[in-house]
Amino acid sequence: MGSRRFPRADPPTHPLRTRCIALANLLGCPMKSRSIRTLLVDASPSVLKILSQILAREEGFTVVGSATNGCQALRYASTLAPELVLMGLHLSKLSGAQTTSQIKRSKNPPVVFMVGSDGGSGSRAMSEAAGADAFVASSPNLEVGLRSRLRAWFSPKAAGTPKCRRGSLSRPPGAPVRKSRLSSPT
Fold it and tell me: How far is the C-alpha of 77 from the C-alpha of 178, rounded, in Å?
């Protein structure tokens, strides 16, 4: 009997996120007492400052480093071991998509949110193809979009049901899931 492929409607949650929340629950510690190690990556120092300020207002996140190009981001991702990377799309030396793709190929990859000024389908598709876990448009309101993604991924209530799933970055919540061309008919 051949193997049967199903559409990727409900992929498993990110293993790192599941382990963090399970460990916090096992120890009886609320998740918010644990700090998520975060790496910021963007070519613009002003965007890095804005991202840092947003995370400072959001409980449970610690910025462990910031990089301004793709090569620096790869080096920091391997040495600082972040659990979350906020990655800009347009970087020098390596693009945000290339850098994300390489980071996601590591042994225990962090959660990667790509951040871009264009919320269009091209940027979302590029993020999805690179293996990003979510895309956050910096306009119209970066803070609102980023905070909602952070809460969806890292709040204890969302542990079993991620709001941002790989393969659904361009699909709005509640929209029907399209069948994959690789899935067999039912």
Answer: 34
Tell me if 171 sits within 8 A of 136, measured CB to CB: no
How many distinct structural domains can be found in the chain? 1
Distance (Å, whole) CA 186 – CA 170: 25
pLDDT digits (tens, 9 = 90+) for 2-31: 443 333 333 345 566 566 666 555 555 554
- Cα–Cα distance, 30 to 48 (Å, whole number): 29
Enter the tokens of residue 79: 């040495």
CATH (domain of 116): 3.40.50.2300
The 10s digit of each residue's pLDDT in 119-144 is 667 788 888 889 999 999 887 788 89
pTM of the complete model: 0.68
